[in-house]
């Protein structure tokens, strides 16, 4: 499947001694489907591959940042009307916050995992999203005062302000999209560290974007979702 991995993936492979095909398959399954690490250990055992669940976790932590970095230049442009919201993710028994936005078509704009839910976190999210996706014309948010304050802080530095709309019910597009992420997270039974949560959530978001058709295929050939994921390692 992968003969020569790209430089970023090659660096991540240091001290990982399994065939890359096997590692990529396990990592993709982990972030694409509602499976626990022990499920993956059993599934690979049925395929005559002996691998401990903790090893699969280590592969994910090593490889997902490299694959996410490779995806950046391949991501299709998103629309300029955003729907932004945050959802809750448990880390060491405490709730943390995954900031997310989708455009009018439902494509993922950007995401950011934060320890707090406040003006500073909202502003940091919008700065990241704008830096990587351009300036939106309109941002739809719910009645959150923190998100409104974060956007107002962004607008304070702009000649042409971003239009802000607040509506709990018109933000259903992004709230529905949260469910795809939470469905994968649920069998993981919470995360043990913030760093691991951030990396795994990034992988889930990556797989979710590929599944929604947000990865450019320059040669025009149709590739399955799995093939597109593996292509990031080339």
TrEMBL record:
Keyword Cell division belongs to the record: no
Keywords: DNA recombination, DNA-binding, Transposition
Residue intervals passing through the bilayer: none
Domain named DDE: residues: 80-214
InterPro entries with a match to the protein in the record: DDE_dom (IPR032874), IS_Transposase (IPR052183), RNaseH-like_sf (IPR012337), RNaseH_sf (IPR036397), Transpos_IS6 (IPR047930)
Alphabetized GO MF terms: DNA binding
GO biological process: DNA recombination; transposition
Keyword Cytoplasm assigned: no
Domain of life: Bacteria
The protein's role, per its UniProt record: Involved in the transposition of the insertion sequence.
NCBIfam families documented for this protein: transpos_IS6
PANTHER family: BLL1675 PROTEIN
Official protein name in the record: IS6 family transposase
Organism name: Paraburkholderia panacisoli
């Amino acid at each position: 499947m992968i003969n020569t991995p790209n430089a970023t993936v090659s660096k991540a492979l240091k001290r990982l001694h399994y065939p890359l095909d096997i590692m990529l398959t396990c990592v993709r399954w982990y972030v694409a489907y509602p499976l626990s690490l022990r499920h993956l250990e059993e599934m690979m055992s049925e395929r005559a591959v002996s691998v401990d669940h903790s090893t699969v976790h280590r592969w994910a932590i090593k490889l997902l940042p490299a694959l996410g970095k490779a995806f950046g230049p391949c991501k299709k442009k998103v629309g300029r009307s955003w729907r932004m919201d945050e959802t809750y993710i448990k880390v060491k028994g405490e709730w943390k916050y995954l900031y997310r936005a989708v455009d009018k078509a439902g494509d993922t704009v950007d995401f950011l995992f934060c320890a707090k839910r406040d003006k500073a976190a909202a502003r940091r999210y919008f700065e990241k999203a704008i830096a990587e996706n351009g300036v939106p014309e309109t941002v739809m948010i719910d009645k959150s005062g923190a998100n409104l304050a974060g956007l107002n802080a962004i607008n304070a530095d702009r000649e042409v302000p971003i239009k802000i709309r607040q509506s709990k019910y018109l933000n259903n597009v992004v709230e529905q999209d949260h469910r795809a992420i939470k469905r994968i997270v649920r069998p993981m039974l919470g995360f043990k560290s913030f760093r691991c949560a951030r990396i795994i959530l990034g992988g889930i978001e990556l797989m979710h974007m590929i599944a929604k058709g947000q990865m450019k295929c320059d040669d025009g050939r149709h590739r399955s979702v799995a093939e597109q994921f593996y292509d990031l390692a080339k």
